[in-house]
């Protein structure tokens, strides 16, 4: 019969244990990697942020909670308790305002999403209201497939779209889908 020496059996046992523990470690690390994706890498409470371009203020942002997820395949930032933002342009007297109860930013793709009671007020004081809005930073356009209401600053003109909007980011130029609305009627024009 074949006899294994003590020394050889000890070496085989050590090799077996190394492979066993090494495979367990790999399984555990894979589990930990998946868990890392489920929680934010950073949280900011009661945020009051100001973004500057040299000495000029461009954006003011307030949010009760900001969560950054930077360990995912596509990093993103959440505003699960909402946000209020002022976009300040140099040549405009009034900023553009954005308010929403929830927002998500995928900065690497230039894609922004706002949900639930979304309100945008442009520098002309026109107000857009919807429940879901996207902003494509690269194309400088906003989109929605949800119902959109636009209240013009004149206090008379209202535009309502049942199937959404495609617009410039300041929503001065827009295309409504399946729209209706109220426009002012000037009786003076008919008399001429």
TrEMBL record:
GO terms for molecular function: lipopolysaccharide transmembrane transporter activity. GO terms for cellular component: plasma membrane. InterPro entries: LipoPS_assembly_LptC-rel, LptC. This is LPS export ABC transporter periplasmic protein LptC. It comes from Apibacter muscae.
